[in-house]
Specification:
The chain is of the alpha/beta class. It contains 16 helices and eight strands. InterPro entries: SMC_hinge_sf.
Length: 424
């Protein structure tokens, strides 16, 4: 067994090795050596560092979890805002005649006003000469009729963004269908007696100027995930974030996802299984962002890469091009050849777009608005609690970092002191 003096000296070292002088223990009849003392102290500090490191990692993991939870809540709030915006469309109330002007039947009227356009000819033939539809068998339809938009102001600004020519573009299943619309003579001139031009001639019309024809199979489709469980197969696009990591205020969603596709057209897919949203509308809008107000959109410029629009008429195009001016005009030439069927009141409230997306038929969605408000209140309460948890965990984490740093400095000083002592 150990001598009594050695036992006492070792016990003292164990109690507080930094308070014991290893030279003194050796001179007093044994005890631990200087090397043993250094090893013991080193192990103790390392053990403390390991325990502090585990505690620090626990706080960091909790902080990471809470921040991820906040991000999910932000996304849920944003999605619910988009949903509520659909339930409670923006904009001042309009007369019944003006509201009816956005319904599907009157979209035909808007297109028919362009009597000498390809879309106008197609609409006329579809409504009155169904026997001749074999000539346009591969044509899916006109862009303006393939999607609907809940919000009148959004319908207006999206139509301005695309322009009348794109709104009146003919959408075809494949390139062979596009080729069937037009033929040329040996000189390269358009054959007015063939294809859609021949169809126009048969009803006493002439297609004037250029028109766009879109081949769905030749468009580069969206490649990515879809929102799970969504019958409309909306695209799961990454939401924009400001440099500070927050979602921009007033952001309502992406235009490509705010188009409602009629169930009949949801079945229209290319040979590769791509639908209208991921081909046609993704090609037209890409990642065009939608904001509630123009000021929100301007504030979000740092995170707008592929254009944006706002419900009050603001437009930012790619490359930083802003469309300025008012969305309303009082000019009568906005509705040429419409005749007396448009009342003065409707003329004053009409906008500069001749063709707009239709508005879906009324549904029970408005009855669900109170439920959406309840969900929004609950989500915001959860977010507030999560923010408080984040602040508290951040304080604990910062305190753990401070203590870990102090202990690490102590270990470095000890190693330096031990190295200096061993060299004597």
């Amino acid at each position: 067994m150990y001598p009594t003096g050695q036992q006492i000296s070792f016990r003292a070292a164990v109690q507080d090795p930094l308070m014991v002088d290893p030279k003194e223990t050796t001179q007093n009849g044994g005890g631990i050596s200087q090397a043993e003392f250094a090893l013991f102290t080193s192990n103790r500090i390392q053990s403390d560092l390991e325990a502090m490191g585990i505690k620090l990692k626990l706080h960091e993991d909790n902080l990471k979890f809470l921040k991820a939870q906040k991000t999910k809540l932000d996304e849920s709030i944003l999605d619910l805002q988009v949903h509520m915006n659909k339930l409670n469309p923006s904009g001042p109330p309009r007369s019944e005649n003006c509201d009816a002007n956005l319904q599907g039947e009157d979209i035909n009227e808007q297109i028919l006003r362009h009597a000498n356009s390809a879309a106008g000819v197609l609409a006329h033939v579809q409504s009155r000469h169904s026997s001749q539809m074999t000539l346009t068998k591969g044509v899916v339809g006109v862009v303006a009729k393939l999607g609907k938009v809940h919000d009148e102001n959004l319908s207006q600004v999206l139509s301005v963004y695309l322009g009348t020519r794109s709104m009146l573009a003919l959408v075809c299943k494949d390139y062979d269908s596009v080729k069937g619309l037009e033929s040329y003579d040996s000189q390269g001139n358009v054959d007015r007696n063939a294809g859609l031009h021949g169809l126009a001639s048969s009803i006493g019309r002439t297609i004037e100027g250029h028109f766009d024809a879109i081949s769905l199979e030749n468009l580069r489709p969206y490649v990515g995930q879809y929102i799970a469980g969504d019958p409309q197969r909306r695209l799961n696009l990454l939401k924009p974030k400001l440099p500070n990591g927050e979602y921009p205020p007033g952001f309502l969603g992406f235009a490509v996802n705010m188009i409602q596709i009629d169930p009949a057209y949801l079945l229209c897919v290319t040979a590769y299984g791509h639908g209208l949203r991921e081909t046609l509308f993704y090609s037209l809008f890409s990642r065009l962002q939608v904001y509630k107000k123009r000021g929100d959109m301007i504030s979000a410029l740092p995170c707008i890469s592929e254009g944006a629009v706002s419900l009050d008429g603001g437009i930012v195009r790619t490359g930083g091009i802003l469309t300025l001016g008012s969305r309303y005009e009082d000019s009568d030439n906005l509705f040429p050849s419409f005749g007396s069927s448009l009342c003065d009141k409707c003329r004053n409230c009409s906008d500069e777009v001749k063709v707009r997306f239709a508005k879906p038929s009324a549904s029970r969605a408005m009855d669900n608005h109170s439920e959406a408000e309840r969900q929004m209140k609950e989500l915001k309460q959860k977010k507030e609690k999560t923010l408080e948890d984040i602040k508290r965990t951040q304080v604990l984490r910062d305190h753990a970092v401070y203590n870990f740093g102090k202990k690490k400095d102590e270990f470095v000083r000890f190693l330096a002191q031990s190295s200096s002592t061993s060299m004597r």
